[in-house]
C-alpha cells in the first residue's frame, strides 16, 4: 500500500545508501493514495481538517495564517512539549494506538527512528520537483534514506558563535576565528574574575557535541559499505573531546545542562560570554532575555583549519506525514506551504521567538526583512547565516536510534563533568550503548572501536 512499508523494507532502504546519496533519484510528482486511519476529518462545504503537532516556536502563528488564507483545508494545531519524553513520546504512543496526527514535527536526529518504526510514511512520490528544487540539498539529504524520502525539511541550522559584545568591548576581547584563539580567550575570560566563563560545556549536549565533531570531520555513522559502521570515537571526535576536556580541566568553562535553570541564570547574570549553538538560538535568546537587547552579536564559529572552513548543524526540524493520516495530500499541501511560502516564515518570525534559517533558501530575503534586528544592534544575522550555511559539511548520517544514544551520552557527560571519567570515555560509552539497539533492530553493524587509541590512553 502506498506510503506504508514494513520495518524490514525501511531498514533495507536506510542501509542501501548514505542519506545524501539519493538526492538525484528522488523526484516525483504523483501522490500517495489515502489510507484508513484516524486524526483527520472532512468538514462541511468540502473543507478537510487535518491535525498538526509541533513543539516549534511560532507554530500557532503559522497555523493561524494558513487557516485564514485557505478554505479547503483547515489545521487543528496542538503545541506539544519538546524533547524525547515530551512530544516524541506522545507521538510514539499515539502511533501505537493508531491515532497519530496527520502532520508531526520531527528533528533530523530522530527521523530515522520514526521511519524504522513505521510512524511516518514514505512521501517520495508526493514531493514534486518544484518543491525539491527550493530546498538546500544538505537538508533534503538528511530526510532521504536510500531512495525514499520520509519528511520535508523546514530549516537547517549552521552552528554559530553568539557573544556578548558589551563585555567583549569592556575587556578588550577580540572575536576568535580559530579554536586555538577560543581557548586563549577562555583563559582571558577566567582572569577577569567575577565567576565569568567563556561558555558552558553542555552535559545534556549530544547535539552540540555532534555539531563540533561534524565540523572537525567526524563520521559517527556510516553506511557506505552496506552496513552501519558506528564510530563515535573516531580521530576527529577524539580531538574535539580532548579540546573540551582541557577547558573543563582548567576550569575555563561551566559544566552543566543547557536546559537547566542554572544556565538561564548564568546567561542572565553575564557569567557566560559566548553561546555555541544553531541559528535558531538567536530568536530563543531574544525571547528568553529581552533585558539584554543590544548586548549580543553573532559571528562565525571558530575553525580548526581557517583555509578549509567547515561546519556542522545544531538543531533543525522537518515535517512528516504519519501513517495514520486519512488525508495525506492535504497534509502535504500544508507542509509545502509551511516550508516554502513567504507568509509562513513571516508568521513564524512574528512570534518574536524564532530565527530559523529556512531550508527553502529562496526565503532568506523574507527572513532578513521580517526579523527584528534591534536585539542584535542592527546586525544582519540572516546574511551571516546564509554565508555559514554554505560551510555545512556534506555526508553526515544520523543513526537509527539517536534518542537512545543521546541518553547514554548525556549520562556519561554528566559523570565526566563531575570528575568521574572523561569526555572521551563518554563517547566510547555511548558507542557501546548504541550497538545493542542496532543489533536488536536486525541491522548489520561494524563497530569501529579505535583499539590503538584505547591502548595508548588506557581509557
From TrEMBL:
<keyword id="KW-1003">Cell membrane</keyword>
<dbReference type="InterPro" id="IPR050490">
    <property type="entry name" value="Bact_solute-bd_prot1"/>
</dbReference>
<keyword id="KW-0732">Signal</keyword>
<protein>
    <submittedName>
        <fullName>Sugar ABC transporter substrate-binding protein</fullName>
    </submittedName>
</protein>
<keyword id="KW-0449">Lipoprotein</keyword>
<dbReference type="InterPro" id="IPR006311">
    <property type="entry name" value="TAT_signal"/>
</dbReference>
<dbReference type="Pfam" id="PF01547">
    <property type="entry name" value="SBP_bac_1"/>
</dbReference>
<keyword id="KW-0564">Palmitate</keyword>
<feature type="signal peptide">
    <location>
        <begin position="1"/>
        <end position="27"/>
    </location>
</feature>
<dbReference type="InterPro" id="IPR006059">
    <property type="entry name" value="SBP"/>
</dbReference>
<keyword id="KW-0472">Membrane</keyword>
Amino acid at each position: 500500500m502506498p506510503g506504508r512499508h514494513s520495518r524490514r523494507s525501511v531498514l533495507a532502504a536506510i542501509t542501501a545508501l548514505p542519506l545524501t546519496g539519493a538526492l538525484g533519484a528522488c523526484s516525483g510528482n504523483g501522490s500517495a493514495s489515502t489510507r484508513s486511519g484516524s486524526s483527520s476529518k472532512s468538514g462541511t462545504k468540502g473543507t478537510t481538517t487535518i491535525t498538526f503537532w509541533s513543539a516549534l516556536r511560532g507554530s500557532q502563528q503559522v497555523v493561524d495564517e494558513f487557516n485564514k488564507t485557505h478554505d479547503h483545508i483547515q489545521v487543528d494545531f496542538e503545541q506539544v512539549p519538546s524533547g524525547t519524553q515530551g512530544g516524541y513520546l506522545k507521538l510514539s504512543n499515539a502511533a501505537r494506538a493508531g491515532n497519530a496526527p496527520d502532520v508531526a514535527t520531527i528533528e533530523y536526529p530522530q527521523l530515522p527512528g520514526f521511519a524504522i518504526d513505521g510512524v511516518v510514511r514514505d512521501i517520495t512520490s508526493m514531493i514534486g520537483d518544484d518543491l525539491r528544487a527550493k530546498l538546500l540539498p544538505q537538508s533534503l539529504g538528511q530526510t532521504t534514506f536510500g531512495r525514499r524520502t520520509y519528511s520535508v525539511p523546514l530549516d537547517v541550522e549552521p552552528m554559530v558563535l553568539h557573544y556578548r559584545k558589551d563585555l567583549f568591548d569592556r575587556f578588550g576581547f577580540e572575536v576568535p576565528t580559530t579554536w586555538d584563539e577560543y581557548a586563549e580567550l577562555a583563559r582571558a575570560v577566567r582572569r577577569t574574575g567575577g565567576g565569568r566563563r567563556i561558555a558552558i560545556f553542555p552535559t545534556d549536549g549530544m547535539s552540540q557535541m555532534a555539531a563540533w565533531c561534524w565540523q572537525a570531520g567526524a563520521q559517527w555513522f556510516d553506511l557506505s559499505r552496506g552496513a552501519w559502521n558506528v564510530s563515535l570515537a573516531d580521530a576527529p571526535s577524539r580531538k574535539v573531546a580532548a579540546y573540551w576536556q582541557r577547558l573543563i580541566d582548567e576550569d575555563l568553562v561551566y559544566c552543566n545542562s543547557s536546559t537547566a535553570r542554572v544556565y538561564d541564570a548564568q546567561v542572565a547574570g553575564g557569567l557566560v560570554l559566548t553561546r555555541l549553538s544553531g541559528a535558531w538560538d538567536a530568536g530563543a535568546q531574544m525571547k528568553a532575555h529581552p533585558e539584554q537587547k543590544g548586548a549580543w552579536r553573532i559571528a562565525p564559529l571558530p575553525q580548526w583549519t581557517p583555509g578549509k572552513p567547515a561546519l556542522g548543524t545544531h538543531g533543525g526540524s522537518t515535517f512528516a506525514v504519519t501513517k495514520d493520516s486519512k488525508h495525506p495530500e492535504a497534509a502535504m499541501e500544508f507542509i509545502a506551504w509551511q516550508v516554502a511560502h513567504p507568509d509562513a516564515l513571516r508568521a513564524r518570525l512574528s512570534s518574536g521567538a524564532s530565527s530559523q534559517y529556512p531550508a527553502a533558501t529562496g526565503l532568506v530575503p523574507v527572513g532578513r526583512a521580517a526579523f527584528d534586528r534591534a536585539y542584535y544592534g542592527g546586525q544582519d544575522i540572516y546574511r551571516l547565516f546564509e554565508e555559514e550555511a554554505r560551510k555545512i559539511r556534506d555526508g553526515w548520517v544520523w543513526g537509527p536510534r539517536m534518542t537512545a544514544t543521546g541518553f547514554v551520552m548525556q549520562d556519561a557527560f554528566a559523570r565526566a563533568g563531575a570528575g568521574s571519567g572523561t569526555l572521551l570515555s563518554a563517547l566510547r560509552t555511548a558507542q557501546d550503548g548504541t550497538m545493542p539497539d542496532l543489533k536488536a533492530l536486525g541491522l548489520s553493524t561494524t563497530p569501529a572501536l579505535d583499539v590503538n587509541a584505547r591502548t595508548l590512553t588506557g581509557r
